[in-house]
């Protein structure tokens, strides 16, 4: 990680080179082939200089939230296409607003030739950025073993993922964290509205099954940087479930040895409606309120009870570097079918490689995981 500032400088310089080369190519066609203007080298230099101020540097700033200047050089083709498209659209909107402000309404709509040049510029940027970043990523992967080795005594999953031996806190870019928070607020708000009828029906069913207890179950869980918060879930157990569990010493020992859970058929605490809610993952719907409030995120490591942190041992700091999530890499990879320590390796894999597009990938993969009840207890 000590070479990270140099890496980011390299990413900035290579992107700057690609952006300027693309501008130079489009400007050369406009000046020397189409001959819209005088077409001298001085004119070309002027276009490039002004483009750096009004196009290149703003585009690079827009690229930041898309993970262009994070730890690793690799970016997917879709990531590049979205970043470039978003950047060009934003700059065009700014240009339109500026044009309207000056009263030149007739210049709002581009000419057919201007539109073709814009498409060419987009194509050159996408091809150039993706090609250069792919090459840098290849070089980075080739020398990576000299900078980071895998965890001593790691299992097969861990070795294949190549988790870093750096056990300190992981710091993600402010751009990614900003986008992630926006996604949490918008996503949880929409989901709460969509599932509001389901929440009402489930609440009624829980009350009918056990009128004495509350609808929601609240429990202390560990959040980012070790902060304790109260998680919301639909109550799937009888009243005084914790007391019942601890009163049966053999059952409690099995609970601890089985990674803080019991097989559903052996758990006397689960109600009939609770068994259904757990199987369908509907018991986790109230966690949307945790995501909206900021205690959790839509995507992140599984929120664990305080006692469970001992399982993470030397990876505790890294695990607590991010907010826990309603869904995550561990959940879509197998959930309850994956036990410790492989579960730790999957969580560490996410923490080290967290990005906006990785979060979207996990959210998409969560849908079939929930629908088909994969790994649900």
Model description:
- By secondary structure, the protein is mainly α.
- The chain folds into two domains: 4-147, no CATH class; 174-236 and 271-371, no CATH class.
- The protein is built from 14 helices and four strands.
- The strands form two sheets. It has a two-stranded antiparallel ribbon. The protein has a two-stranded parallel ribbon with strand order 3-4.
- Helix 1 (4-33) packs across helix 2 (41-63) and helix 1 packs antiparallel against helix 4 (112-147).
- It is elongated.
- The chain starts with a helix and ends in a 6-residue tail after the last helix.
Q: In which order are the strands of the major sheet placed?
A: 1-2
Largest sheet, in brief, is:
2 strands, antiparallel
Unreliable stretches (pLDDT < 50, length at least 5) are 145-161
Order of helices and strands: HHHHHHEEHHHHEHEHHH
As a whole number of angstroms, the C-alpha radius of gyration is 26 Å
- What's the tally of helices? 14
Number of strands: 4
N-C termini distance:
39 Å
Which structural class should the secondary elements be placed in? mainly alpha
3D shape = elongated
Proportion of helical residues: 55-70%
Number of domains: 2
Mean pLDDT: 81
- Beta-strand residue percentage: 5-15%
């Amino acid at each position: 990680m000590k070479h990270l500032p140099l890496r980011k400088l390299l990413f900035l310089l290579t992107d700057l080179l690609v952006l300027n080369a693309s501008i130079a190519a489009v400007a050369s066609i406009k000046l020397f082939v189409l001959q819209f203007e005088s077409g001298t080298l001085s004119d070309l230099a002027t276009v490039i200089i002004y483009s750096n101020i009004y196009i290149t540097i703003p585009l690079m700033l827009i690229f930041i939230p898309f993970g262009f200047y994070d730890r690793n050089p690799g970016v997917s083709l879709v990531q590049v296409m979205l970043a470039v498209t978003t950047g060009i659209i934003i700059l065009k909107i700014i240009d339109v607003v500026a044009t309207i402000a000056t009263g030149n309404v007739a210049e709002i709509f581009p000419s057919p030739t201007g539109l073709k040049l814009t498409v060419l510029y987009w194509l050159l940027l996408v091809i150039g950025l993706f090609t250069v970043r792919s090459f840098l990523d290849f070089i980075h992967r080739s020398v990576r073993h000299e900078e980071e080795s895998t965890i001593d005594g790691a299992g097969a999953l861990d070795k294949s993922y190549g988790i870093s031996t750096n056990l300190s806190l992981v710091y993600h870019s402010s751009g990614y964290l900003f986008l992630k928070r926006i996604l949490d607020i918008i996503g949880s708000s929409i989901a709460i509205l969509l599932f509001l009828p389901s929440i009402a029906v489930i609440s009624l069913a829980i009350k009918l099954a056990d009128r004495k207890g509350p609808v929601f179950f609240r429990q202390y869980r560990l959040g980012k940087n070790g902060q304790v918060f109260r998680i919301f879930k639909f109550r799937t157990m009888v009243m005084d479930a914790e007391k019942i569990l601890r009163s049966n010493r053999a059952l409690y020992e099995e609970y601890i040895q089985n990674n803080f859970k019991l097989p559903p058929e052996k758990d006397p605490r689960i109600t009939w409606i609770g068994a259904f809610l757990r199987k369908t993952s509907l018991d986790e719907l109230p966690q949307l309120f945790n995501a909206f409030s900021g205690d959790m995120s839509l995507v992140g490591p599984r929120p664990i009870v305080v006692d469970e942190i001992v399982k993470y041992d030397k990876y505790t700091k890294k695990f607590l570097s991010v907010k826990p999530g309603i869904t995550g890499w561990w959940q879509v990879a197998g959930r309850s079918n994956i036990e410790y320590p492989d579960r730790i390796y999957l969580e560490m894999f996410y923490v080290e490689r967290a990005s906006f597009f990785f979060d979207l990938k996990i959210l998409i993969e969560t849908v079939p995981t929930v629908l088909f009840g994969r790994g649900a207890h």
